[in-house]
Amino acid sequence: MIACQTSGLSVAYHTEPVLRNVDFSVSAGAVMGIVGPNGAGKSTLIKAMLGLVTPLTGTSEFFGQSLSRVRQRVGYMPQFTSVDWDFPTTVRDVVLMGTYGRLGWLRRPGRAEKETAATAMAQTGITDLARRQIGELSGGQRQRVFLARALAQEPDLFFMDEPFQGIDAKSQRAIVSVLHRLRQAGKTVVIVHHDLATVQDFCTHVTLLNQTVVSCGPVDEAFTSEHLRHAYRVGDTEQGFFEPDNSRGPRVEVAP
Ligand SMILES: Nc1ncnc2c1ncn2[C@@H]1O[C@H](COP(=O)(O)OP(=O)(O)O)[C@@H](O)[C@H]1O
Ligand SMILES: [Mg+2]
What we know:
Blueprint: E1 2-13, E2 16-27, E3 31-35, H1 42-49, E4 57-62, H2 67-70, E5 74-77, H3 91-97, H4 100-103, H5 111-123, H6 139-152, E6 157-161, H7 169-184, E7 188-192, H8 199-202, E8 205-210, E9 212-218, H9 219-222, H10 225-232
Parallel strand pairs: 3-7, 3-8, 5-6, 6-7
Antiparallel strand pairs: 1-2, 1-4, 8-9
Bound molecules: adenosine-5'-diphosphate and magnesium ion.
Adenosine-5'-diphosphate binds next to helix 1.
């Protein structure tokens, strides 16, 4: 089953083209890494699929349907730098927001929603921070809050945009353990990931992106030094460029 796909996706900001004719598809249960240099259009790809940026061309489907029909099944953790942190609200309220899609606008969160939020906070190690203002937290703590909000939504498909960017070791471990849990539960994850050295630790599949799709598929096929050179446009004479070790499989357990 395909969890999400887009075809013929092109995006421009003003007149500047950012994505050109991108075809992209993620099987249910995969952890798909989106990898490419700064400014390659990784965040834009996710935003365009989720309707946060209007594409010039292209359509996207989620579980075979338009996003509006399955919005509750799709979670999104935005890139760290793109969120307004001055918003005056507590950690607990941000996480509870994850349950609103299930509630509709008129009902207030009840016991079930509060329990879901509490579980999400425990899984991300932020229970102690529940009453704190979001603006007071460190970068890693904030990332965990937004991960908890996405978990509280209980989606089947998660989009995470550079969840490891600028965070401490404890937050990193918390996010890694959530990734493993999602994987084991058969959820689908699309993760923008910057660190080439750990792509194989987290991802079962990779899309190398630089305005267009350079490669897309299982890690062994898509994450090769040849494709990486192409995506990062590094010449063959470049010394010490990242060489993936394809002799080992992903460390994330692959569901049967
Ligand atoms: N809101 C915006 N307005 C204008 N240009 C943008 C906007 N967002 C991103 N860009 C530009 O689009 C390109 C792709 O950005 P982005 O998708 O954020 O790349 P990545 O996530 O791969 O680093 C970059 O050149 C960036 O400067
Ligand atoms: Mg980005």
